[in-house]
Predict the structure.
Amino acid sequence: MKICKKIVNFSLIIILLSFSTSLVHGKNTPSSFADLAEKLMPSVVNISSTQTIKTTSNPFPFQFPPGSPFEDMFKEFNRPTERKATALGSGFIIDKKGIVVTNNHVIQGAEDIFVSVNGSTEYKAKVLGTDPYMDLAVLQIESEDKFIPVSFGDSDKARVGDWVIAIGNPFGFGGSVTSGIISSRNRDIGLTRYDDFIQTDASINQGNSGGPLFDLNGKVIGINTAIIAPGSSGSIGIGFAIPSNPASKVIDQLIKFGETKRGWLGVRIQEVTKEIAEVEKLEKPMGALVASVSEKSPADKAGIKAGDIILEFDGKEVDTMRKLPKLVAQTKVGKKVLLKIWRNQKLISKRVLLGRLESSKEFKAENKSEPDTSKYVKIEDLKIQVRDLTKEDVSKRKLPKGTTGVVVAEILPGSPLMFVSVNDVIVELQKKKIRNPNQFFDLVKEIINKGEKTLYLAIYNSNNQRSYITVKLK
């Protein structure tokens, strides 16, 4: 359940949230949260999910190279085994019929999902829809019982210094209530495509992901999702929650359609640096620089060109590059919007009819789950064939989120990679991160052309154990 990302000597861990804090506030300081907690407790649920993980165990401290006469002799000792893995998280009820909101990573890949209400009654639940891009999931409790829902508040009105409380399931201790304040707003931590987190000093621990962040009116203003922690030791009081306003739009779509329907512009963008702003005669670095425009996309049809700088979208200022995707995604598909663009040191306007992100070629290519055998790349120098590591591979194998690399698809006779097996994942070569098969191919060529005789690989084996190995080249 942990997802690690290195941030200034800290690990970003997506795990569940709870709140502990040191708090100082001015007027209207509550003497107790007891009445509010008692009212909200029945609407917060504990979520457990199960998944079967298949692994192949090797009782020997070595592996036989492909083609070895001992390979068949000992293959009966190398049998696949199955085990049940259980994950814990939190969620909250938003409809009396039993609709539950949680994080996508809480239930991702789950075979069975169970929801515990009031720490006692347990129900089976099914998935209505998920959105990995904002890390949200909507569940339906399979029961005719009536439940007590909570409602969303206006996260745009939440201010730094406001009191918040959270109820969740940290480390399996259901019904835990904690408090904190809002430490900051609009945090972009590079975790999702649409980062816009509320930062709190509430502690986040395993079991709290997907739980609600309440204001003092008992309204949900955030969905607890991530923390920054040294190593993996737990919370140090820097937690992040998805704001309720953008989250509720996605949740409504998941309930209604079972999927998201995000606006699509069709541009690849980059940051406007100080140097670019100076060349373009902008007063300051701002906006999103269009690096390329997708053919036949809404932007292409509207006449947007590479080199344009988008300064305003639908009446909203694009102060940073990262803001544009959020604005576009939250805009209704089919809406005609006005863009203000800086081109040739002049401000111009373009009207664009937004398309749907999920219908674009780029989205379909990015989310393609099955490996395309036509895209296998043969590394002749290593006598292996590799393919791209897909998102489905990462999900099924429970690899860290954001892992990239190549999967070994075939090992040919005479390969120097005798300690690598089919389906091993190569993630680094000479300490350089592997992004795709073509880049891996080019890197191998570059190393050999330099006359280097040793390859230094980082791999994940079939048991998802990461290790470094060296390979001698002839």
Notes: The first helix runs from residue 34 to 40. Confidence is low (pLDDT under 50) at residues 1-27. The CA atoms of residues 127 and 139 lie 5 Å apart.
